[in-house]
Amino acid sequence: MTQAANLLAHAAADGEFHPPSIDDFFPAGLLFAGTPFEITRINLAQFLATAVLVVILVLGTRRMAVVPGRFQSVVEMGMLFVRDTFAHNILGRKDGDRFLPLLMTMFFMILFMNLTGIIPGINIAGTSVIAVPLLLAVVSYVAFIYAGLKRSPGGFIRNSLFPPGVPPFLYIIVTPLEFLSTFIIRPVTLTLRLLMNMIVGHLMLVLFFSATQFFLFTMGGLWSLLSVGTLAFGFVFTLFEVLVAVLQAYVFTVLTAVYIQLAVAEEH
Asked: I need a labelling partner for 46 at 20 to 30 A (CA). Which of 31, 52, 98, 223 fits?
């Protein structure tokens, strides 16, 4: 792994172990360094995830057959999962079909960018810098506002800030809380939840594998026995990161669908 190799080189130079740090998420530019178009290792991970996703979807859908082959079946299963789980089950068939392209794109984009964090040589998720989670949160927020205004232009904002059934004298307390909860906290929590999970996952993986190399190659002797434990933890945590990658894509998409459903609910 690239980051583990860098840490090993530093350890070999001074005989000390250097754990991963937040600096991992500010890598040096690989192309166009020093310009607004600078491309780093994280950008390459994002490009790779996007390219692989596009290729899979194109190849899986360009020659659709009534009796699908294995590859088409896998692609269809993924699409049906998103449609049934996020769109139809939460939004209903009519609204679900309207927002299905958004939910489909969001789920698979997050999933594939998350999974770059466990690929050797890349070892960092495309969603581990704030730009991607923030962009997705803004898209989710805009979809929520659009859905509410489209369904009830005159009542969406009013009912969001002044919930029906609440005594008017309580609005002085309820309205600021509703504003913060609905229009501020939602996009912030969407951003931070995804970002922090991917940051922590990267730091833990690099910690385990770089510790393995440090004990095995730098310390040597009986210290090498410790590398067995750190290597085992590294592999176990890699499997856990696969689960986290899927779970975070699921959570982000399902929350987006729920927010849209709340916006188009009848009371608005």
From this structure: 98
Check pLDDT > 80 for residue 81: yes
How would you class 117 by CB atoms within 10 Å of its CB: exposed for 0-12, middle for 13-18, buried for 19 or more? buried
Lowest mean pLDDT among 26-35, 71-80, 161-170, 211-220: 211-220
DSSP string, 33-89: TTSTT-B-HHHHHHHHHHHHHHHHHHHHHTT--SS--HHHHHHHHHHHHHIIIIIIH
DSSP string, 208-245: HHHHHHIIIIII-GGGHHHHHHHHHHHHHHHHHHHHHH
Nearest C-alpha neighbor of 127 from the set 112, 143, 139: 112
Rounded CA-CA distance 28/158 in Å is: 48
Residues sharing a CB contact under 8 Å with residue 14, sequence separation 6 or more, in sequence order: none
Contact 194, 133 (CB under 8 A): yes
Look up the pTM and report it: 0.88
The DSSP letter of residue 117 is G
Average pLDDT over residues 57-78: 86
